[in-house]
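Q: Hi! First time asking for a complex rather than a single chain. Here are the components, and I think there are two in total. Is that enough to go on?
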Amino acid sequence: MIQLAIDLAFVLEKAILIGGIISVSLLVAMYSTWAERKVAGFMQDRLGPNRAGPFGLFQPLADGLKLFMKEEIIPNASNKFLFILGPGLAMMTAMMTSAVIPWGKQIEIFGRTVDLQIADINIGILYIFAVLSMGVYGIMIGGWASNNKFSLLAALRGASQMISYELAMGLSIIALLMLTGSLSLKTIVELQSASGGWWNIAYQPLGFLIFIVCAFAECNRTPFDLPEAENELNFGYHQEYSSMKLGFYLFAEYINMFMSSVLMATLYFGGYDIPFVNDASLIESMGMNLVAVLQGLSLFLKAAFFIFVFMWVRWTIPRFRYDQLMHLGWKVMIPLALFNMLITAIVVLIRENGWPF
Amino acid sequence: MQMLTNRSKAVDRHPMTVWEKMYLPAIAKGMSITLSHFFKKKPTINFPEETRPFSPVFRGLHILNRDEEGRENCTACGLCAVACPAEAITMEAAERKEGEEHLYREEKYAAKYEINMLRCIFCGLCEEACPKDAIYLSETFAPSNYKREGFIYGKNDLLIPDPKKEPELYQKAVGERARKK
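A: Yes, that's all I need. Here is the structure of the assembled complex.
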């Protein structure tokens, strides 16, 4: 028998971290639904939900309770196993992204230094893209297993959209990786938060623009929410779903939104770096744990801002037509990302080798 | 061609310029508009907690009036029923008996007085027709009900509280409008 050289404290530490991060992201997703309705209301000169509890804060609980109480319908003609697997897969892939994101630097508990990151793998970004492309399966399986032609068409629509935009997203990230020279998210954040280091948005404004547009498309948010166009395209891949299985699909969208907001903050806006302050000197004066809390807060504020942008865009811009969507994805975003990559490559080459001519 | 009004606009179908094709300026413009609405004051009135102020000439639920001694004013003359364009008012008259002088002001009174609030159009013609100042329209509206029968208001729904026995309720029921007279 092989003895694994992992002590119990390490397993416990990671388990607590995973539990904490999952519950925090579920909570954030829950209150994103509330915030979405509040933002929608405010932008349309309404008040939004304000009946359940103070400022309507219990609204997500009421919504969740309602979804749980609803009758659960599994269509006779559906493939029951895949039908149930679909929303589970969507939810799981949405949560899995959080594993490689650094939520803060380090904390010290019981004499142990704990990294606030579940797994610092050196292929962090690759992992995220792998998980993201798994997200397509949630949609495809759900749509196919419903045994409904509208669901299937919507699933195909959603899958082709996600795959098209993943391409441009990957290309925009490559330019960033050429600058940082690392796939590990922790290294990327540390490069940005080092003294004298700028946030990547300063080097990669075009890359960020492409990334945010693709993130909208990946999360199926307006203006790219064709997979679930409720009012004009006969709902979407979750047409046959009811009760909490439908809730899972909708909930997974909000978790995805939170995760991509965190990812944008991590890649382009310094991650957990506290702006205008030298974090290293702050650790000396305030202690490691307090700074870690501040760093987590800073990351959350950045993510909250991006979540707000997601909602802000949703209540401003109307939906694209499907041919326009594909046109934008293949004929605009990908050439633009390639151009951005080329420029970045030239700059990096010149910076490393000097002006050779 | 002569235009009837100057409001018609020709549809602009020119091909998009490069600036317009970039989308982003237009998107930024749209987002600035929605953001400005985000901070605007909301016109919402939170109904049960706040109510919309009624206009001074608002015509709401009917009230059957009493005089200062608490006697019913109505003599069941039927002028209100005749005046009513929606035919919402029905009544049955009765003669005042000996010893009922403290209840009814005149010798004749309405034993039954019903208004169908589903028929009523709240025009206020009954109030104008009444020679005895016995009926007037108050500042409240009919509350919702599950059954049609609930909207046929009888005398015990319509009569104002006795000013001698329940002066506070009476004052509340009289409201602003009657006080002005």
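A: The two ends of chain A are 62 Å apart (CA to CA). Let me know if you'd like any chain examined more closely.
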